[in-house]
Amino acid sequence: MGSFRQRGCKCPPDRKRCNCGAKWYYRYDIVDPKTGKRKQKEIGGFTSKAEAEAEAKRIQYELLRGIYTEPSKMTVEEFMTDYVKNTLKNEVAPNTYEQRLAYVQNHIKPHIGKVKLSDLSPSHIQKFYNDLREKYGPGHVQNIGRLLNKAFNQAVRWNMIARNPFQLVKKPSTSRKNTKIKVWTIDEQKIFLSHAMKGPLIYYTLFLLALTSGMRKGEILGLKWDDVDTKSGIVRVKRTIVWAQKSIYLKDAPKTESSIRTIQLPEQTVKALKKWQLACPANELNLVFPSPKTNKILYPNSLDKQFLKTVAESGVSRISFHGLRHTFATTLLSSNVNPKVVQEMLGHATIKTTMDTYSHVLPNMQKEAASQLSAVLF
Question: Which CATH number goes with the domain that contains 228?
Answer without folding.
Answer: 1.10.443.10
